[in-house]
Design brief:
The structure is a homodimer of 373-residue chains. Chain A has 373 residues and is α+β, with helices and mostly antiparallel strands. Chain A has helices at 14-27, 35-49, 86-98, 118-126, 147-150, 175-188, 202-208, 213-229, 234-242, 342-348, 362-365; strands spanning 10-11, 53-55, 65-73, 103-108, 130-134, 158-161, 167-171, 192-201, 210-211, 245-260, 263-272, 280-286, 288-294, 297-301, 305-310, 316-317, 327-333. In chain A, helix 4 (118-126) links the parallel strand 4 and strand 5 (130-134).
């Protein structure tokens, strides 16, 4: 076993996996896949292969290789196809073969209801540990939008596989090229595909990834669960555990959506209720929520996290589940500090998505506005 | 040198390369790239690296590996970019590395003004011989449409590369999947890309390829050249050397064209002149000419070859060069017998391209119609 030299900290039980998927969907800012599907697939893998093992970033040997499995494509396609079976293992095998069997652990590419648990599913299946970290501390719609890119870590060699036995191995000169080539392959594979990339050593991971995010997702998911069980104030608990701000509370009155180049693009418009009555909010998304505009004023933008939460249940609402009539709280959560550097804002900020606006941290945008927080 | 054990039959001089490119453009049925660009690139490679060497199919060892370099994408993009430099060598290196340096020769994927000379360019550069054969005996717009597919030879591993240093290696379960995955990669690489695939042994090549087509292309090109030099009847010479039929003679009065998924799709309409006065012909194409309809009657279809020839100069006209006003002869040439089997017609016949018509050999369609032949 490649992980025999690693001291495994803990095994995840079913409740922890459920909590991680739900909490990661909060951090997934509308993208990263549906937590319900992620949970079902993870629980099924656990029944068949046993519990997934999680290790701390410090436990990965300096020169041990970690790679990130990720589902590439339009999350709306998850509803029909959740490619975490043989295709995911095939993507892993293609990459592991490339490195002559040197992969020792897995890591989530992003936090999101599905993508956060994808490594847990594969880890259970292969007996490989999953590192408590990810490449974003949130979710993003393009493969190069990970903090590893800020540290010069290549996404490639990057393997993409389907359920028929097709694999594509990309060797690219930049992470933008990995994204450009992985996406059309995923589209050919039926809008969504299993992939494996970002090979890096333990030393690189500790410098370049966002650490502790599986634990954080678990805490967030557990907070939602406990507050619901105890009939507490779910939103208040969410604000506490995420360090977030309530940007808006309202009813969804319009959702525009289109699929373009494998992305789920569009916007949701909300009419305010309670203290936000009379106000309106527009949230624009590309798989993930990108900007939140309240009464024509920007109140949050990427790289900060913008998540819609069902006001009744506290459940995060992914962009493909947005529907007219949902009563929702729009939650803003500060992003990881790696994203707030100049390079981080250039990589994952509003201009990358075509918005000609300066990024201003969420807390500053909402410090003097009297927003409920 | 990997080819040291092979007895090289002949080296090509500049005139032979020009003749091959021009003759292959006749066999390219409107596609396969522009002979002018192919010739320029080949002559430049010859100046730098020396003459390309051609060998007979019998000279490839039974277990020696041959692969086919090919430019994938929309031939109209050739006009801006002719990717036969470092990208073509990179695609070769990716495949040769996969086979631990075992490639001993190259073969054309198809006959066509550019793709027929691509192996000559790469062969000159690498000092590898080119086999006198190809995978179609014509040109076709999709990677799986080669006679090797009829013999169960895999297109993959199949490498696609660009000029920036990006490579994609496909490992697919069918040649249709190779086509599906190579095309979007080529589109990302700027509508056209260098690729390398169809690795096969000498024994496989002798069974599954169309043999002797470089020589045939050279004969056709030489016939055009000599007839023009001697002010002879170029069309008559072309009919003789190709075994073809003159399906029509007319003036192009309409060209409709669109680029779709990296293909050059459309149709040309001709008004008859001379013995075809009063008649009309429509030629539909997808990179290559697919069907020829004279006065609402089908007179030729794939897999048979349909090529428009400039009536004055005898030059073949590629589909991206079709223009209003050209006086053209529409030439029909019988395809190789491998395409006339049931499997061949299923793979490369009219139904593959969405035409609900039975394939009938060119000679039968035109035997009792009084067509000039």
């Amino acid at each position: 076993m490649p992980c025999s030299s690693i001291n495994v900290l803990r095994e995840l039980d079913a409740q922890q996996v459920r909590d991680i998927a739900r909490g990661a969907a909060v951090l997934g800012t509308g993208g990263g896949g549906d937590p319900y599907l992620g949970t079902i697939a993870a629980l099924r893998a656990m029944e068949e292969y046993g519990k997934p093992q999680v290790i701390e970033p410090d436990e990965v040997p300096d020169d041990g290789l970690v790679a990130t499995p990720v589902l590439v494509g339009a999350p709306v396609a998850f509803l029909e196809k959740f490619p975490v079976g043989p295709e995911l293992e095939a993507a892993y095998r293609a990459l592991d073969t490339h490195f002559a069997g040197k992969l020792v652990a897995l890591m989530s590419a992003e936090m999101g209801g599905a993508n956060s648990v994808v490594p847990l599913i594969l880890g259970a299946r292969l007996g490989l540990p999953v590192v408590d970290a990810d490449g974003m501390g949130r979710a993003y719609p393009e493969a190069q939008l990970v903090t590893m890119t800020l540290y010069g870590i290549d996404a490639s060699p990057f393997a993409v596989a389907d359920e028929h036995g097709n694999t594509v191995v990309l060797d690219t000169v930049s992470n933008v090229w990995t994204e450009r080539l992985a996406r059309p392959a995923a589209i050919e594979f039926g809008a969504i595909a299993a992939s494996m990339g970002y090979p890096m050593t333990g030393a690189q991971l500790r410098e370049a990834a966002v650490l502790g995010t599986l634990t954080w997702a678990e805490e967030i998911g557990a907070a939602i669960r406990v507050a619901r069980e105890e009939k507490g104030d779910v939103i208040r608990e969410l604000l506490r555990v995420t360090g977030g701000i309530e940007l808006f509370r309202g009813k969804i009155v319009d959702v525009a959506r289109r699929i373009e180049r494998g992305w789920n693009l569009g916007e949701a418009v909300l009419d305010g209720i309670d203290e936000f009555a009379g106000s309106s909010m527009t949230v624009r998304f590309q798989n993930e929520n990108l900007v939140a505009i309240r009464d024509d004023r920007l109140v949050a933008s990427v790289p900060d996290l913008i998540t819609l939460i069902d006001a009744e249940t506290g459940e995060p609402i992914t962009t493909e589940r947005l529907r007219y009539g949902f009563r929702s709280v729009v939650l803003g959560i500060p992003c990881d500090d790696k994203w707030r550097t100049d390079a981080g804002v250039e990589l994952g900020g509003p201009r990358h998505f075509g918005y000609e606006i300066e990024y201003v941290p969420l807390e500053e945008l909402n410090s003097a506005t009297g927003a409920a927080a």
